[in-house]
Amino acid sequence: MTTTTVPGPDGDSATGMPAYVSTPPATRRDPGPWPGVVVVHDAFGMSDDMRDQADWLAAAGYVAMLPDLYAKDGRTQGWGRVPCVARTLQQVSRGEGPAFARIEAARAALAAREDCTGTVGVIGFCMGGGFALLLAGRPGWSAASVNYGMLPDDDAALDRAVEGACPVVASYGGRDKMLAGGAARVEAALDRAGVPHDVREYPDAQHGFITRTADTSPLVPLMRRVMGVSHDHEASADARRRILAFFDVHLRDGGTGAGGGAEPSQVAAGDASGAPASADVVAAAGSDDAPPAAGEAPVGWIGAARPGTTRVGRAAGDAASA
Predict the structure, then answer these.
(1) pTM for the whole thing?
(2) Are 129 and 147 in contact (CB under 8 A)?
(3) What is the pLDDT of residues 114-161, one digit of tens each?
(4) Measured between alpha carbons, how far is residue 28 from residues 48, 92, 205, 220 in Å?
(5) 211, 53 in Cβ contact below 8 A?
(6) H or E segment at 124?
(7) CATH class of 2-321
(8) Where are the domains of the chain?
(9) 101: how many CB neighbours lie within 10 A of its CB?
């Protein structure tokens, strides 16, 4: 886990942006290189929680890079961040702006790393989920994980955004007051576009259910009751399981990128018969140095022994029976 500087959109490292990079532990049976994932942060910025998301992906066998989209603004702390957040959200709404160029610069830098295979996906949360959805339809990405991200206002704009998109795995909360009906809209658009996908709505989950940033805020009561924002352990664990299963199909060896890979039902269920995929969480580092097979990824695996790396959640069967 390191903090580095990614060359900016103009290619100049002197004007680059900070980025947090978390790498898998090299083992005898999986020495690398590994696929890459760009993590696009939520409105809270490059927080400890977002670093945890990068660490979790690294523990599952992906080189994860978290660029700081606010760094160039110069006002990234406290109330001074508010104008920066507003400007960045506006860029998601417009589908263009400096933040997109910064994310692309992060993708290029990640793909060029010696420990990366050059195959790169994107994952985003809240504001970052809005970016991930729009990036899915742009060149260079092999898979996208969209987590309760804001959507274009109308279905025609949503259709344009996902036309020709890479495979998409998306997760929404049924009690999300800001994105009511979002899962159905995204799934319908991906169906119309013929994009491989796995979209799921968790009925009891609110906005932000995968991350914990909102739960550490002094505004927790307001965020939960008024805005409908809170963490949900069981929904988070299942969403992470699905994300890893989907990424294993589309980012690892054998993944074919846009238009290829397993059918969504196979990714989510484990096989065409509908039997749950095996996803036993590895209890201790060194018990098995092999990376999990596609469709069998636990929520976190052997990298959890590394200091600062997150390994949480349940196996797929446990989540289904909870």
Answers:
(1) 0.74
(2) yes
(3) 999 999 999 999 999 999 999 999 999 999 999 998 899 899 999 999
(4) 30, 42, 40, 44
(5) yes
(6) strand 116-125
(7) alpha beta
(8) 2-321
(9) 14
